[in-house]
Amino acid sequence: MYLIGLTGGIASGKSTVARRLVEHGAIHLDADQLARRVVEPGTTCLEEIVAAFGEEVRKPDGTLDRQRLGDLVFHDDDARARLNAIVHPAVRELSAKLIAKAEAEDPQAVVVYDVPLLVEAQVDHPFDLVVVTSAPKRAQVKRLVEERGLDPIQAEARVDAQVSDEERRAVADVVIDTGGTIAHTMSQADALWVDIDRARRAKHA
């Protein structure tokens, strides 16, 4: 198996790169989706969150009220740290199981694990390669406004709340510049796949 950690700031083109690698044959795991799975009704994780933050973070239908929880932790570093201490280990455990399953089904598999908080959560799976998507702040803000409907002040706050591009680049083996056209991003992803395929073959030779 060949395991790639994919990370980058909000609206920095991670999903575009992930989609392109999947088109080439990679298996895609999305940490955000896994984070939703570990807090579904009936999970230990959800019960721990309710115990830590109160019954008001649970909707009447039993699901997590993500909006309310987000409001509680967004400007409170301690609260966010408490939440992360509950969610991150559960996501790590689930992702490790899914990575192991992919390898058992196909020892030659290329798995792209898309982890927005790879740096912040200190995700330390044994990655063969860490890929960082990088776009200028103005491009990220513009995308959040145009594609996700945020107002510019909200959008800027979201970008500023994350670790810096420099910190992400520090852990990168490969940086994909997503500040230009989609075609430019795609061509970099295609070139990356050629390198991945070569490295995978060498690893299994």
From TrEMBL:
GO molecular function, one term: ATP binding
Source taxon at top rank: Bacteria
SUPFAM superfamilies: P-loop containing nucleoside triphosphate hydrolases (SSF52540)
InterPro entries the record matches: Asparaginase/glutaminase_AS1, Depp_CoAkinase, P-loop_NTPase
Cellular component, GO, one term: cytoplasm
Chief localization: cytoplasm
One of the GO biological process terms: amino acid metabolic process
Record field: transmembrane: none
EC number: 2.7.1.24
Chain residues that bind ATP: 11-16
Localization in the cell: Cytoplasm
Protein name as annotated: Dephospho-CoA kinase
